[in-house]
Amino acid sequence: MKVAAKGKKATARLSFINLLGGQAIVNHPVRSEFDLIALSNEGISKASLDALTGHLGISKKAFSENILDISVKTLERKKDADRLDKRTSSHIIEIAKVVEHAFEVFEDEERVKHWLNSPNRALGGVKPIDLFYIPTGLGMVDNILGRIEHGIFS
Question: Which strand (E) or helix (H) includes residue 106?
């Protein structure tokens, strides 16, 4: 995770904080992994979840039910400023870190959406986004992004 990405147009535009709706919505400094733990414990807002979902190329219903295992109706009842629980917040933060890595690799939102939503041979024909529901899957996707970043066919 690059906490302060300067100079890179794509990463500055869609950094970790921007993926979660920007500093005004996150409203918590993120300079280290400890800050991410504090942010998880505090809970991210529903507005941050909505912002991230907009960058993934899937519906809020699919994201909430298939990845977070939360009813979309439950999320719809929440106000934008309402905080999510720490387990859900931590999961969303981990997803945002992997998506940030995807933006660093592909440097284009449409390419990121396409890659996340296309079957991947290195993942046994599974779409990367279909592995976001579990930490091991997020790690696998991040590993594949690292391989692509270093020029290894994946």
Answer: helix 86-106
Q: Tell me whether residue 87 is exposed, middle or buried, using C-beta atoms within 10 angstroms of its C-beta: 0 to 12, 13 to 18, 19 or more.
A: exposed
Domain extent listing, the chain: 9-149
Q: Using the CB atoms, write b or e for 13-39: b if 16+ within 10 Å.
A: ebbbbbbbbeeebbeeebeeeeebeeb
Contacts of 50 (CB under 8 A, 6+ apart): 21, 60, 80
Report residue 124 as tokens: 């046994």
Give the C-alpha separation, 84 to 78, whole Å: 9
Please report, in tens digits, the pLDDT of each residue of the chain (154 residues total). 544 443 344 444 578 899 999 999 998 888 999 999 999 999 999 999 999 999 998 999 999 999 999 999 999 999 999 999 999 999 999 999 999 999 999 999 999 999 999 999 999 999 999 999 999 999 999 999 999 999 887 7
CA distances from 56 to 6, 69, 152 (A): 23, 17, 24
